[in-house]
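Design a sequence for this backbone.
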């Protein structure tokens, strides 16, 4: 059907002619359009809500940014958010009950897609008199939290007397107890509210990386383009 040649001889070889190069360009565009169309159709093929886990610590600062990228990637997608401790979220990921979760990763690990870095800090009510406290009352996260272990270990090594008043599984519970003036706390700087003060001259607390981890069978929305866009936004 073509009155032009798509190939021409160049020595002993056949190479694309000018018309052939033009046709290849159109063919590549068609393939690209086909792939984009297939990608869109695939998203609707097994359309279901995206189940996203996020510890309460990161609801105010990290979660909205992740939701924004997901919404831009697929405006019609419904997202179900589950706020639970990281250890519970990891279990649900392994069981296939979540599509993705925002968690902290172990030191020197390359797990997940990096979202942010955070540093542990000590917090107190602005009027808390730490210098005259004979025994420091503590409100900490549960014992599996890095900040809990580091706080207790640091005070013990200093020989500072302390009383573990409360172990909390949410940041809001720890903040509420600290806000009341009954105890001091230890949490990531990103989770500290403006009405609390950060204490200096206290044992060092660890830094952590916050990442997005996908489940066993990733949701169609969580494709390479979406995850790359998320990492770029958070950088």
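Sequence:
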């Amino acid at each position: 059907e073509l009155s032009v040649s798509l190939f021409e001889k160049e020595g002993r070889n056949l190479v694309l002619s000018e018309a052939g190069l033009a046709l290849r360009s159109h063919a590549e565009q068609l393939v690209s359009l086909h792939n984009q169309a297939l990608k869109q159709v695939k998203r609707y093929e097994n359309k279901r809500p995206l189940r996203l886990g996020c510890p309460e610590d990161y609801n105010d600062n990290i979660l909205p940014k992740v939701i924004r990228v997901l919404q831009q990637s697929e405006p019609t997608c419904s997202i179900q958010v589950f706020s639970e401790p990281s250890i519970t979220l990891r279990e649900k990921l392994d069981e296939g009950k979540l599509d993705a979760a925002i968690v902290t990763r172990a030191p020197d690990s390359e797990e997940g897609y990096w979202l942010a870095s955070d540093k542990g800090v000590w917090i107190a009510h602005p009027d808390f008199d730490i210098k005259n406290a004979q025994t420091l009352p503590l409100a900490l996260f549960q014992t599996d939290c890095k900040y809990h272990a580091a706080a207790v270990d640091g005070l013990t090594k200093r020989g500072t007397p302390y009383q573990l008043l409360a172990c909390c599984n949410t940041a809001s519970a720890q903040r509420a107890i600290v806000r009341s003036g009954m105890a001091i706390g230890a949490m990531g700087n990103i989770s500290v509210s403006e009405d609390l003060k950060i204490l200096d001259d206290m044992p060092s607390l660890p830094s952590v990386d916050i990442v997005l981890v996908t489940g066993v069978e990733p949701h169609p929305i969580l494709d390479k383009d979406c995850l790359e866009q998320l990492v770029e936004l958070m950088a």
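The chain has a mean pLDDT of 89.
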